[in-house]
Write a structure and sequence with these properties.
With 195 residues, this protein is of the alpha/beta class. It has one domain: P-loop containing nucleotide triphosphate hydrolases (Rossmann fold), CATH 3.40.50. It contains seven helices and eight strands; from the N terminus they run E-H-E-H-E-H-E-E-E-H-H-E-H-E-H. Strands 1-2-8-7-3-6-4-5 form an eight-stranded mixed beta sheet, sandwiched between helices. Helix 4 crosses helix 6. The chain is globular and about 40 Å long. The chain starts with a strand and ends in a 5-residue tail after the last helix. The N terminus is likely disordered. Pfam families: DEAD. Keywords: ATP-binding, Helicase, Hydrolase, Nucleotide-binding. This is Helicase ATP-binding domain-containing protein. GO terms for molecular function: ATP binding; helicase activity; hydrolase activity; RNA binding.
Protein backbone atom coordinates (compact mmCIF):
# COMPACT_ATOMS: atom_id res chain seq x y z
CA UNK A 1 0.00 0.00 0.00
CA UNK A 2 0.91 3.64 -0.15
CA UNK A 3 0.43 6.42 2.34
CA UNK A 4 1.21 10.07 1.73
CA UNK A 5 2.78 12.02 4.54
CA UNK A 6 4.52 15.18 5.53
CA UNK A 7 1.56 16.54 7.48
CA UNK A 8 -0.55 16.81 4.35
CA UNK A 9 -3.72 14.96 3.41
CA UNK A 10 -2.98 11.28 2.78
CA UNK A 11 -3.46 9.82 -0.67
CA UNK A 12 -5.29 6.61 -1.47
CA UNK A 13 -3.49 3.38 -0.56
CA UNK A 14 -1.99 1.23 -3.28
CA UNK A 15 -1.01 -2.40 -3.10
CA UNK A 16 1.69 -3.91 -5.25
CA UNK A 17 1.32 -7.63 -5.69
CA UNK A 18 3.79 -9.67 -7.67
CA UNK A 19 2.61 -10.99 -11.00
CA UNK A 20 3.89 -14.33 -12.21
CA UNK A 21 6.53 -12.92 -14.55
CA UNK A 22 10.18 -12.05 -14.28
CA UNK A 23 9.99 -9.54 -17.11
CA UNK A 24 10.67 -5.97 -16.00
CA UNK A 25 7.68 -4.72 -18.02
CA UNK A 26 5.35 -6.98 -16.03
CA UNK A 27 6.40 -5.76 -12.57
CA UNK A 28 3.46 -4.52 -10.46
CA UNK A 29 5.31 -1.31 -9.59
CA UNK A 30 4.97 -0.10 -13.18
CA UNK A 31 1.20 0.29 -12.88
CA UNK A 32 1.69 2.69 -9.93
CA UNK A 33 4.28 5.02 -11.48
CA UNK A 34 2.00 8.04 -11.99
CA UNK A 35 0.36 7.58 -8.59
CA UNK A 36 3.72 7.52 -6.80
CA UNK A 37 5.10 10.55 -8.64
CA UNK A 38 1.93 12.52 -7.93
CA UNK A 39 2.03 11.55 -4.25
CA UNK A 40 5.65 12.67 -3.88
CA UNK A 41 4.93 15.92 -5.67
CA UNK A 42 1.81 16.65 -3.60
CA UNK A 43 2.83 15.26 -0.20
CA UNK A 44 6.63 15.23 -0.19
CA UNK A 45 6.66 11.78 1.43
CA UNK A 46 5.39 8.40 0.29
CA UNK A 47 5.34 4.98 1.91
CA UNK A 48 5.35 2.10 -0.55
CA UNK A 49 4.84 -1.52 0.38
CA UNK A 50 4.74 -4.53 -1.86
CA UNK A 51 5.68 -8.14 -2.17
CA UNK A 52 9.27 -9.15 -2.76
CA UNK A 53 10.05 -8.86 -6.46
CA UNK A 54 7.34 -6.30 -7.29
CA UNK A 55 9.86 -3.63 -8.36
CA UNK A 56 10.16 -1.43 -5.24
CA UNK A 57 13.95 -1.47 -5.20
CA UNK A 58 14.64 -1.28 -8.93
CA UNK A 59 11.69 0.55 -10.48
CA UNK A 60 10.78 3.25 -7.95
CA UNK A 61 14.23 4.88 -8.25
CA UNK A 62 13.97 4.72 -12.04
CA UNK A 63 10.54 6.38 -11.96
CA UNK A 64 12.16 9.29 -10.14
CA UNK A 65 15.18 9.32 -12.45
CA UNK A 66 13.00 9.41 -15.57
CA UNK A 67 10.57 12.01 -14.17
CA UNK A 68 13.02 14.90 -14.58
CA UNK A 69 16.62 15.38 -15.73
CA UNK A 70 17.07 17.55 -12.62
CA UNK A 71 16.26 14.70 -10.23
CA UNK A 72 19.16 13.27 -8.23
CA UNK A 73 18.23 10.27 -6.12
CA UNK A 74 19.88 8.36 -3.30
CA UNK A 75 18.48 4.95 -2.38
CA UNK A 76 19.50 3.44 0.95
CA UNK A 77 20.11 -0.24 1.49
CA UNK A 78 20.88 -1.94 4.81
CA UNK A 79 23.83 -3.88 3.36
CA UNK A 80 26.79 -3.01 1.11
CA UNK A 81 26.31 -6.03 -1.12
CA UNK A 82 22.68 -5.09 -1.79
CA UNK A 83 23.62 -1.48 -2.64
CA UNK A 84 26.18 -2.61 -5.18
CA UNK A 85 24.03 -5.41 -6.66
CA UNK A 86 21.03 -3.12 -7.11
CA UNK A 87 23.18 -0.44 -8.75
CA UNK A 88 24.54 -3.05 -11.14
CA UNK A 89 21.02 -4.34 -11.89
CA UNK A 90 19.53 -0.90 -12.54
CA UNK A 91 22.50 0.21 -14.66
CA UNK A 92 22.10 -2.97 -16.70
CA UNK A 93 18.33 -2.44 -17.11
CA UNK A 94 19.06 1.05 -18.41
CA UNK A 95 21.86 -0.10 -20.72
CA UNK A 96 24.27 2.14 -18.83
CA UNK A 97 27.77 1.65 -17.50
CA UNK A 98 27.90 1.31 -13.72
CA UNK A 99 29.22 4.54 -12.23
CA UNK A 100 27.81 6.84 -14.89
CA UNK A 101 24.09 7.67 -14.50
CA UNK A 102 23.63 4.91 -11.91
CA UNK A 103 26.21 4.20 -9.21
CA UNK A 104 26.75 3.13 -5.64
CA UNK A 105 28.61 4.33 -2.56
CA UNK A 106 29.44 2.18 0.44
CA UNK A 107 32.20 2.45 3.02
CA UNK A 108 35.59 2.32 1.28
CA UNK A 109 34.08 1.61 -2.16
CA UNK A 110 32.13 3.58 -4.71
CA UNK A 111 31.30 3.76 -8.38
CA UNK A 112 30.03 7.26 -9.13
CA UNK A 113 30.99 10.07 -11.49
CA UNK A 114 30.85 13.60 -10.12
CA UNK A 115 28.27 15.63 -12.03
CA UNK A 116 27.03 12.61 -14.01
CA UNK A 117 25.68 10.08 -11.50
CA UNK A 118 22.04 10.88 -10.80
CA UNK A 119 20.99 7.68 -9.00
CA UNK A 120 23.19 6.43 -6.15
CA UNK A 121 22.55 3.31 -4.09
CA UNK A 122 24.11 3.79 -0.64
CA UNK A 123 24.17 2.07 2.72
CA UNK A 124 22.02 3.52 5.50
CA UNK A 125 25.11 4.08 7.65
CA UNK A 126 26.93 6.10 4.99
CA UNK A 127 23.95 8.36 4.29
CA UNK A 128 23.47 8.84 8.03
CA UNK A 129 27.12 9.94 8.39
CA UNK A 130 26.76 12.32 5.47
CA UNK A 131 23.58 13.84 6.90
CA UNK A 132 25.23 14.34 10.29
CA UNK A 133 28.54 15.76 9.07
CA UNK A 134 27.72 17.21 5.63
CA UNK A 135 24.00 17.92 5.76
CA UNK A 136 24.04 20.96 3.47
CA UNK A 137 26.04 19.08 0.84
CA UNK A 138 23.60 16.16 0.93
CA UNK A 139 20.61 18.46 0.60
CA UNK A 140 22.28 20.20 -2.34
CA UNK A 141 23.32 16.92 -3.97
CA UNK A 142 20.00 15.02 -3.86
CA UNK A 143 16.39 15.86 -4.66
CA UNK A 144 14.95 12.51 -3.50
CA UNK A 145 15.85 9.99 -0.81
CA UNK A 146 14.38 6.50 -1.04
CA UNK A 147 14.73 4.48 2.15
CA UNK A 148 14.46 0.91 0.92
CA UNK A 149 13.98 -2.12 3.16
CA UNK A 150 12.51 0.23 5.78
CA UNK A 151 11.11 -2.74 7.70
CA UNK A 152 14.67 -3.78 8.66
CA UNK A 153 14.70 -1.37 11.58
CA UNK A 154 17.87 -0.74 13.56
CA UNK A 155 19.46 2.22 15.33
CA UNK A 156 21.01 3.66 12.16
CA UNK A 157 17.75 3.46 10.22
CA UNK A 158 15.75 5.00 13.08
CA UNK A 159 18.25 7.87 13.33
CA UNK A 160 18.16 8.38 9.56
CA UNK A 161 14.35 8.49 9.54
CA UNK A 162 14.35 10.91 12.46
CA UNK A 163 16.86 13.24 10.76
CA UNK A 164 14.89 13.15 7.52
CA UNK A 165 11.64 13.87 9.33
CA UNK A 166 13.16 16.84 11.17
CA UNK A 167 14.80 18.25 8.03
CA UNK A 168 11.58 18.04 6.08
CA UNK A 169 9.60 19.69 8.90
CA UNK A 170 12.19 22.40 9.58
CA UNK A 171 12.10 23.80 6.11
CA UNK A 172 9.86 23.75 3.11
CA UNK A 173 12.75 22.33 1.13
CA UNK A 174 12.46 20.47 -2.11
CA UNK A 175 13.78 17.22 -0.70
CA UNK A 176 11.33 14.36 -1.23
CA UNK A 177 11.42 11.03 0.60
CA UNK A 178 9.94 7.61 -0.05
CA UNK A 179 10.06 4.59 2.24
CA UNK A 180 9.76 1.14 0.72
CA UNK A 181 9.23 -2.11 2.58
CA UNK A 182 7.95 -5.63 2.16
CA UNK A 183 4.17 -5.86 2.34
CA UNK A 184 4.24 -8.18 5.34
CA UNK A 185 6.26 -5.64 7.35
CA UNK A 186 4.69 -2.40 6.16
CA UNK A 187 3.26 -1.43 9.55
CA UNK A 188 6.68 -1.38 11.23
CA UNK A 189 8.09 0.76 8.42
CA UNK A 190 5.20 3.20 8.15
CA UNK A 191 6.05 5.49 11.02
CA UNK A 192 9.45 6.99 11.80
CA UNK A 193 10.51 7.38 15.42
CA UNK A 194 8.93 10.30 17.28
CA UNK A 195 10.78 13.57 16.81
Amino acid sequence: GYRGGGGRAPAAPMSWKRKAADDKDALPALSHRAELLTALRDHGVAVVSGDTGCGKSTQVPQFLLDASPANRIVVTQPRRLAARALAERVASERGSTLGRTVGYAVSRDKATTLGTTRLTFMTVGLLLQLLIFKRDEVEAAFTHIVVDEAHERDVDLDLLLLLLKRRMKAQANKLRAARASAAAAADTAAEPPAA
